[in-house]
C-alpha cells in the first residue's frame, strides 16, 4: 500500500481542497509519484475523466497539480444534491441511484467497499496518496457511518493534519473541540494548520503554545489569507468572492457578463476563465436590472433544471432574460440553462420533479426530454456554421469540453459538430454525425462544459459583445491553462513557505 497523508478540517470551507492541491504540486516537484483522493465528495461542480467517469471538480484540479490525468478512483463516491428528490449517488464515476439521506446511510456498506477498492487501485499506481476529508471528522451523530474522514484515514494508515479557519473566528475552540469529540480517534491527528490568517502574528503566537499544551498537538503552519487565488473552487460559497481579477485593467470599458444565480447552480467553474480577461466584469446575480443591462447573460448549469426554472418564473427573471434578448444582449445557456431556453422540458419518469411537462423560455427551438440515462463524456467540437455577429474562422475547430447531463434535446440542433470520447463520433443508432447546441440570433446554448477554457473561442464570445457595443475587437492574449498552472504554483509556494514540510515528511515516513 502507498504511503498516505490526510488533510481534515474542523468544518466545511476551511481550505482543505486547496491545501491538498498545493501539497500535490509540492510533492510532485520533489519527484514523488503522488495522487489525490477523496473517498466521498458532495459537490455540484464535477468533471469528466478521460474514460467518461464523473468526479468532483476539486479532485480534477488536484490531479492537475500532481501533473497526472484525473481518474474516477480519486473520488469513488460523488453526491450531487437534487433538492426534494434527494442526492444523485455516483459510484466509480457512474450514476448508481438517487437517494434520500436514510437510503444512503443504508447503502454506506456498499459505498465503503467502493472506497476501499479505489484506494487499493491508486495505491498500486502511486507512491503517495494525499487524502482529503469532508466537513468535520467530529460530527458525532454521523461517526458510525463515516467513510470519508477517520475511517478512511485508519484504512490508509494515514497521519492526519487538521486545518482550522481563523477567519471565521474561534479557531482554537474548533481545534480543541474536534480533538475532544473524536476521543481515542484523535490519536490519528498529528498536527494542526491554521488557515486564512491576517493580522499581527505576535498576538496569535501565545495561542499556538496554549493549544499544544491543551491537546499535545502542535501547529505546524499558519497560512495567510489569500485573495483572488485564481483557481476553480468547489462550492457555492466561492460565488461570494467573485470580483475583478488582478489581470483586469482599471478605467477601461468592460464587457459586463452576468451569470444568473440559480439555487442549484452546478459547474459554475465554467466561467472562471472570463475572470482572467482584462476587459470583462463577471458577476453572479438574480437582480433584473443586472440581467437587462448586461452585455452577456449566461444561464448556467443546474442540478435541478426544472426546480430552478420554476424559481426563475416565480421571480419573473424569465421575462428579464427575454427583455435582455430583445435589446440585443447575447444570451447563453449552458447545459441546464440551455434546456431552460428551449420551448419544452419533459420529465415523464419524474427524474427531477413531479412536473411531467413545462414550457421553457422559448428563445431556442428545442425540446428536452429527461430519460433515466446520464450522458458523461469528453468532447472535441467544431463550430458548424454562423456565429453571433459574424463567422468563426478555422481557429475555432478542435474545441475541448465535456458533457454531464440528464436529458436529451431535439429540434434545431447544429451549432457544434462533436466527437464524444470514449464514445463514437457518430450516433450509434442512426450512424449520423453528432451535433450539439442551438442558436437563434443573439441567443445560443450548448451542453459543452469547459467550452470557455478554449482561449480563442472565449475571446470571440467577448469580441462579439464588444462589436455590439461599438468597440473594436481585442486580440487573444490570455492563456487560461497557463494562468491556472501558475496559480497552482503560487499556491504551492505560499504553503511551502508557511508550513513545516519536514515535519509532514517525517510523519508520512518519506
Describe the structure.
The chain has 2 domains: 3-39 and 108-230 and 485-508, P-loop containing nucleotide triphosphate hydrolases (Rossmann fold), CATH 3.40.50; 252-477, Class I glutamine amidotransferase (GATase) domain (Rossmann fold), CATH 3.40.50. The chain is 31% helix and 28% strand. The chain is built from 14 helices and 26 strands. It has helices at residues 16-29, 57-65, 101-125, 150-156, 171-182, 201-215, 272-275, 288-292, 305-314, 317-326, 336-340, 455-468, 480-498, 501-508; strands at residues 3-9, 34-37, 40-42, 46-48, 54-56, 77-81, 87-91, 94-99, 128-132, 160-165, 189-197, 218-224, 255-260, 265-266, 280-285, 296-299, 301-302, 330-334, 344-346, 357-359, 366-383, 399-411, 416-421, 434-436, 438-440, 443-446. Strand 11, helix 6 and strand 12 form a beta-alpha-beta unit. The longest helix has 25 residues, at 101-125. Mean pLDDT is 91; it is low at 236-250.
Sum this structure up briefly.
The protein has 510 residues and is an alpha/beta fold.
Amino acid at each position: 500500500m502507498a504511503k498516505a497523508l490526510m488533510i481534515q478540517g474542523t468544518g466545511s470551507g476551511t481550505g482543505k481542497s486547496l491545501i491538498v492541491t498545493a501539497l500535490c504540486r509540492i510533492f510532485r516537484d520533489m519527484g514523488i509519484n503522488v495522487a489525490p483522493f477523496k473517498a466521498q465528495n458532495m459537490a455540484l461542480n464535477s468533471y469528466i475523466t478521460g474514460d467518461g467517469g464523473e468526479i468532483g471538480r476539486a479532485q480534477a484540479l488536484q490531479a492537475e497539480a500532481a501533473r497526472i490525468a484525473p481518474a474516477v478512483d480519486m473520488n469513488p463516491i460523488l453526491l450531487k444534491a437534487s433538492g426534494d428528490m434527494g442526492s444523485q449517488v455516483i459510484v466509480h464515476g457512474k450514476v448508481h441511484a438517487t437517494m434520500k439521506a436514510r437510503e444512503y446511510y443504508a447503502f454506506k456498506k456498499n459505498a465503503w467497499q467502493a472506497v476501499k477498492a479505489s484506494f487499493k487501485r491508486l495505491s498500486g499506481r502511486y507512491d503517495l496518496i494525499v487524502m482529503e476529508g469532508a466537513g468535520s471528522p467530529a460530527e458525532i451523530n454521523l461517526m458510525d457511518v463515516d467513510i470519508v474522514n477517520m475511517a478512511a484515514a485508519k484504512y490508509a494508515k494515514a497521519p492526519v493534519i487538521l486545518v482550522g479557519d481563523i477567519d471565521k473566528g474561534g479557531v482554537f475552540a474548533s481545534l480543541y473541540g474536534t480533538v475532544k469529540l473524536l476521543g481515542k480517534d484523535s490519536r490519528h491527528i498529528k498536527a494542526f494548520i491554521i488557515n486564512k490568517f491576517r493580522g499581527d502574528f505576535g498576538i496569535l503566537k501565545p495561542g499556538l503554545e496554549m493549544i499544544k499544551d491543551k491537546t499535545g498537538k502542535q501547529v505546524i503552519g499558519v497560512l495567510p489569507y489569500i485573495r483572488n487565488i485564481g483557481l476553480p473552487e468547489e462550492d457555492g460559497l466561492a460565488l461570494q468572492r467573485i470580483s475583478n481579477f488582478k489581470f483586469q485593467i482599471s478605467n477601461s470599458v468592460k464587457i459586463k457578463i452576468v451569470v444568473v444565480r440559480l439555487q442549484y447552480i452546478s459547474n459554475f467553474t465554467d466561467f472562471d476563465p472570463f475572470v482572467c480577461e482584462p476587459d470583462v466584469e463577471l458577476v453572479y446575480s438574480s437582480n433584473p436590472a443586472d440581467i437587462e443591462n448586461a452585455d452577456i447573460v449566461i444561464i448556467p448549469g443546474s442540478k435541478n433544471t426544472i426546480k430552478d426554472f420554476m424559481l426563475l418564473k416565480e421571480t419573473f427573471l424569465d421575462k428579464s432574460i427575454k427583455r435582455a434578448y430583445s435589446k440585443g444582449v447575447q444570451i447563453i445557456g449552458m447545459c441546464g440553462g440551455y434546456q431552460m431556453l428551449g420551448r419544452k422540458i419533459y420529465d415523464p419518469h419524474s427524474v427531477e420533479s413531479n412536473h411531467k411537462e413545462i414550457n421553457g423560455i422559448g428563445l431556442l427551438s428545442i425540446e428536452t426530454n429527461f430519460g433515466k440515462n446520464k450522458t458523461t463524456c469528453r468532447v472535441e467540437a467544431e463550430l458548424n456554421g454562423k456565429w453571433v455577429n459574424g463567422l468563426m474562422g478555422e481557429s475555432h475547430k478542435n474545441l475541448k469540453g465535456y458533457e454531464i447531463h440528464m436529458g436529451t434535446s431535439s429540434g434545431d440542433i447544429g451549432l457544434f459538430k462533436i466527437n464524444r470520447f470514449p464514445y463514437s463520433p457518430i450516433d450509434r443508432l442512426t450512424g449520423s454525425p453528432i451535433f450539439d447546441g442551438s442558436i437563434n440570433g443573439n441567443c445560443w446554448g450548448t451542453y459543452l462544459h469547459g467550452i470557455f477554457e478554449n482561449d480563442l473561442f472565449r475571446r470571440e464570445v467577448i469580441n462579439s459583445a464588444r462589436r455590439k457595443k461599438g468597440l473594436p475587437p481585442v486580440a487573444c492574449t490570455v492563456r487560461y491553462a497557463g494562468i491556472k498552472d501558475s496559480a497552482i504554483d503560487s499556491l504551492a509556494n505560499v504553503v511551502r513557505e508557511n508550513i513545516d514540510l519536514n515535519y509532514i515528511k517525517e510523519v508520512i515516513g518519506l
